[in-house]
Description:
The protein has helices at residues 11-23, 42-47, 66-77, 87-116, 123-144, 163-169, 180-190, 193-200, and strands at 2-5, 27-30, 55-58, 61-64. Helix 1 packs antiparallel against helix 8, helix 4 packs antiparallel against helix 5 and helix 5 crosses helix 7 (180-190). It is built from 8 helices and 4 strands. By secondary structure, the protein is of the alpha+beta class. The chain folds into 2 domains: 2-77, Glutaredoxin (3-Layer(aba) Sandwich); 87-195, Up-down Bundle (Glutathione S-transferase Yfyf (Class Pi), Chain A, domain 2).
Amino acid sequence: xxxxxxxxxxxxxxxxxxxxxxxxxxxxxxxxxxxxxxxxxxxxxxxxxxxxxxxxxxxxxxxxxxxxxxxxxxxxxxxxxxxxxxxxxxxxxxxxxxxxxxxxxxxxxxxxxxxxxxxxxxxxxxxxxxxxxxxxxxxxxxxxxxxxxxxxxxxxxxxxxxxxxxxxxxxxxxxxxxxxxxxxxxxxxxxxxxxxxxxxxxx
Length: 203
C-alpha cells in the first residue's frame, strides 16, 4: 500500500492527500514533521535527505518533493483524467505547477509569514508584499477567466499544488482586491469533498 509520510497540517502534504483522494487511492499516512520531531532521524533522512515532508513510499519506490509526487501519482493512476496523455497539454499543466512553486508560493509566504510574525513589518512593507502577491494572483486570475479550472473545463494536476495557498490566502485578515475568477475557482474547489476534507477543514 502507498505510504505517505507527513503531517496533515503541512500544505505540501495536503497536496498529496487531496491528489490521492481525487484518484481514489488507498494509502496509509504517518505523522512526520514539525511538532512530531521525527523528520531528522537517520531513518527518515535515509528516505529524504532534506528532512522535509512529505515523502512517499510506493512499493519500495521512494519519492519526495510534493509537486513531483503529484505528477507521479497522476501519471500512474490518473492518465487521461488528472494527467493528460497529450504532450503539449501536459507541458502546459506542468508549467502552471512550476509557476506555483517558483512565483506564487514565495510571494504568498512572504506575506503570510509577515502577518504571523509577532513583530510584523510596518504598513508600507506589508502593502508592498500584498502588491507583489496581487501581481501574481492577477496572472492566475486571467488564466481562470478562460475556463473553470487552471488547465481547462475539469480539474487536473495543474490545480492541485495551489490548494493550501488559495485556502490560506482566503483566511488571511486582509482585503482581497478584485480577483473574481480566483474567488470563484476557490469556491468551486471547496465543493469537492476531497478538497474540503484534506485542505479546507484542516486549514
